[in-house]
Every structure is written in C-alpha cells, then in structure tokens.
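Friendly challenge for the regulars: who can give me the structure tokens for this chain first? No prize, just bragging rights.
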Amino acid sequence: MATPVLICDDSRLARRQLARSLPDDWDIQIEYAENGLHCLEQIKAIQPEILFLDLNMPQMDGYEVLQAIKAENLHVLVVVVSGDIQPTAHERVMALGAIDFITKPCDGAKLEEIIEKHGIKDKAMRERLQHSLGEQLDPELRDIYQEITNVAMGQAGNLLARLLNVFVELPIPNVNVLEVNELSMALQSIDTNASTSGVCQGFIGGGVSGEALLLLNDSSFVEIASLMNYEGELNQKVELELLMDVGNILIGAVLTGLAKQLDMHFSQGHPVVMGQHCNVADLVSTNQERWQRTLAIEISYSIENHNVNCDLMLLFTEDSLKTLKFKTQYLLED
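First reply, four minutes later:
Bragging rights claimed.
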C-alpha cells in the first residue's frame, strides 16, 4: 500500500520539480493541490501522510493552510517549501506546526535528509504493516490485549518513575500478529539510524511462552546514569549494567502485570544481551532465526524532559495464541 503524499503549489513547474526530487525507493502515491483551498480539500479526501506546502499562493496562502490544519485538527506532517528565505518566515511556519522548511529550488539530497530525520518512511512502513495485518487479529481480542497491556505497562512505568524520580510518558501499545519477516521490518522501523543496545529475556507459564526484547537508544545512557546519580566513568560495562537494570524493571513489571490479569504465573529465563552499540538491523539479523510467527506487543517508553527512549517488545509464540484467547474470554463475561 503506497504512502499518500500531497504537494501543494500554485506553480505546475514547482509541483513537478518537487515530485521528481523525492526518493526513488519510497513507495508513494503523489497527489497535487493548486492552492490552499484545494489543499485542504485534498487533505480531507486522501488523508496524506505528508504535505509539501508552498507559502505564496492565491486564494489561501501557506500560512492560512497551516492555521486551518491546526484549527481543524487535521493529521498530516507538513514540510514548507518556499522561496521566502526570511528567518521570520521560517519561525512563523514552525510556530504554526510545520516540521521543517526547505527553500526553493528543491534539493533532492535535502529532501532525503528531512525524510530520514523525521522517520517518515519508517512511520509509513509501520502503519502499512498494522493495516495489512489488522484483519489477522480479531478486533475484540486486540482491544483486550491492548487494555491488559495498558494496565501492565502503567505498573512498569510507575516503578521506573519512582526509581528515577521522573515522569514516564506512556504510549498506546501496538498489538499485531506478525510473520518472521514482518517482525524484522517492524523492529527495524523503530529507529534505523540511531545506535542501539538490546537485551532479551524468555518467559513461560501455563501454556504461554515467548520473549521480551528491550531496545534502548544509546543516547539514553548518559541521561539514565545521571538520573541514577552515577558519577563514575560511563564505559561499556557500566552501560551494560544500566541496560540490565532498566530491562529488569520494565520486563519484570510488565510480565507480572499481565500474569496477574490472566491468572497465570510466568517463569523468566536469564536475560541475554542481543548486542551493544549497533543498529537495530544488526540486532535483528543476529537474532531473528529464533522468531517465527508471533503475537507482538510493542510499548515505547520515554521520559519527559530527558533524552531517554526505549522500546519493549513482547513476542508470544504462535502456540500461545490459543491459550491466550482462552484466558481472556472470562474478562468479557458478565
């Protein structure tokens, strides 16, 4: 499923030039708008992932489009493309919600840089995965799995918040049934550029088994060490200890929270280091032979006002799906 992209410019030449500058390897469906009013109509009609927006246009200019997008709560990423290079113009569009600004004429390398910077390709890939796999999991079951995960991750977030004296931002968990190749894509889409460290821990109990994977962005270690009042040298050994500490807190608390709600008990194996200071693709290629078709629950934790981001992925084996479904049936009983 191609990602819808909207280009809004009153110049036909400018529209075509920008379209030709977009990356060749990006699976997209390009649509056009000739002015601001047409742009808003197109946003509502095709729901583009990203909008490339000119500023100086008849009927409704780019500033007014940004204001309307904000006022009408329309969901689209906006990159402004304009010949107006005044610093004030840049400041105004960013204040109105644009994610970036490109000066005309468009430079393909700059466009590629912005697309990579904001993870637009990865976000689109993940949404396509969720869309294509959505029909494989019963909506009622997905709702149950999301709700019990909400409770469990809240307990884990509370432990981390108390330990570090911070506010932990909790997301809506993603729940999908994935084949092994789709799982690899989903993991790699978490962060293709940043250096990452990972740990995994197996669990089993009552006919349910799987692995919990914790991926921690390497840029998070300095902040975590500071929050834990660590004053020594931050070497690879210390970073491994910090990774294990965070993993023990989050994995242990989430599994305990799930087990209580399902009236089960999970025994946890010893944590195993997947890798340190490498990209997610390398972590995946090294470990993916163990993973088959699986129920995957992804939780992305972050800490307010701190550069700490980690992803916790729970991978339940295909053999566990029947037991999990049976265990959740009583939660819907009157």
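The mean pLDDT is 81. The radius of gyration is 23 Å. Your move, everyone else.
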